[in-house]
Amino acid sequence: MNTNTGLKGQVTLEFIGSALFFLTVVIAIMGLAVNEVPNFYDDSDTKSLNLEAKYITDYLLKTSGEHNYDGGGSDWERNEDTLDEVLRPGFKADDRLRVDRDKIESMGTAGDDVYSYNEFSDYFEPDHSYSFVFTWYPIVETHETFTRTRPPEDPEIEEPLEQEYDITANRVHYGSIDLNGETVKFLVTAIDGQYANVYVSDDWDFREREHKQEGEVPEALSEDEIGQDFEIAAIQNRDERPGAIVVLQSHVNEFGPSDRSASGDVIKMNRYPIMDDPQSSNEIVKMEVFAW
């Protein structure tokens, strides 16, 4: 298999995603990145595993895939007819700098309505086993500010009524993001000098909203409200721009056997492309690859 076809001269997906990820929010999510570096070992078997995992992830990120149904095309994820005649998988969106959410969600461990792990194995013929986990990390820009009790008129913000809000710092950050076809609004407030409380609403009326902190899922970001749960992963507290970024996280998909069944060394490789979703802002998705 020619590993260089169509890859030369392209700006790589993972470079774009990684650049944005590390340059804009690396400090804000530093705690999330612990132990995310691939485990490289010196023995030849593990070196071979690393090389194979790198090749497979490069291939998936840099190609769109192809099917042979009704004249063929790259939209192999479109329906069961195209899934039945996939020639090769790939995640790249029409915009070559992004990966397609529908393609990622069309991968599955088993089933007739997914591109299964058995089909993945038949195509790549890997010498090792693989498990993939995709986690979405939307980044909410909350750099706009107002003084508490003096909200702006545009947008017309109604402040929270809960007692906790009354004892927070005077400077309140706010912003919004598009997720699953909804524009979600945010307020971020500080306690004891640290931005820690987040209010989330489907409009700018926060009067009935309660604050949430890291590790929690606000009601307006729950599966019932927006189709999937989004957890508050991190709140920026850098000296230069505290409160200006809120990082969310949400599970997107996973496929392949569980790495808990593995024997021997398991390597972990992370990639950070940008996920293309017409109903959402273009945000980073972490592709975790476990191989053994």
What are the key terms here?
2 domains; alpha+beta; 8-stranded mixed beta sheet; 292 residues; 4-stranded antiparallel beta sheet; single chain; disordered N terminus; 7 helices
Structural commentary:
The protein has 292 residues and is α+β, with helices and mostly antiparallel strands. It folds into two domains: 13-137 and 252-291, no CATH class; 143-243, no CATH class. It is 20% helix and 29% strand. It is built from seven helices and 16 strands. The chain has helices at residues 13-25, 44-62, 80-84, 101-105, 117-124, 163-166, 223-226, and strands at residues 66-67, 86-88, 99-100, 107-108, 115-116, 130-137, 139-141, 144-147, 171-179, 182-191, 194-201, 231-235, 245-255, 267-271, 274-276, 283-291. Strands 3, 6, 7, 12, 13, 14, 15 and 16 form an eight-stranded mixed β-sheet that branches. A four-stranded antiparallel β-sheet has the order 8-9-10-11, with no helix packed on it. Strands 1-2 form a two-stranded antiparallel sheet. Strand 10 and strand 11 (194-201) form a beta hairpin. The longest helix has 19 residues, at 44-62. The radius of gyration is 21 Å and the shape is elongated. The relative contact order is 0.19.
